[in-house]
Amino acid sequence: MENAESKFASxxxxxxxxxxxVKKLGGEESARxxxxxxxxxxxxxxIQIDRSQPFDPAKFIGAGWSIEEQDEKSLAxxxxxxxxxxxxxTLEKKEKTxxxxxxxxxxxxxxxxxxxxxxxxxxxxxxNLIPEEWKKKTNGNTTFIFFDGTILxxxxxxRCVLCLCWLGGEWYWFFYWLGGDFDxxxxxxxxxx
Length: 193
Fold this sequence. Notes:
The protein folds into two domains: 41 residues, no CATH class; 135 residues, no CATH class. Helices cover 29% and strands 30% of the residues. Strand 9 and strand 10 form a beta hairpin.
């Protein structure tokens, strides 16, 4: 519980108090899970990304899907502080929409880390970890949060990216064609460099 000790030490807890907390949480493994998945420390909301099993689009979406391209910086992340995630549209002055491929190119030029499909999958499978503010609408419309760090290809040739949205009181996921138009309601989840 070395990691837990350092987190609790900043709160001036004694070892006895810390052990009591670990016991109350159901033992060391449960305490680790709590610290990893649930605890907000100093305004941070850190989630762990299990990279031992890569995102499998054929298994998640269906046959015919493959990974075309991935953001290497995102693939290197084993944890993400969700309070550091920003939503980027790449729209410039007077632009109302941008093609998905152009948006990807602008994100690459900005040198941000485009969150990938494994981070998307982690949030989808643990929806309680998704920040409450991600449910907010943009200009009164549903916000579709894109994970452009993984670009998928369907067997028919179209390049797509995954997104999450809060709709009708629950989370949904979709994929969207990069040849389509992206507007202010279609931001990308990124980490600034």
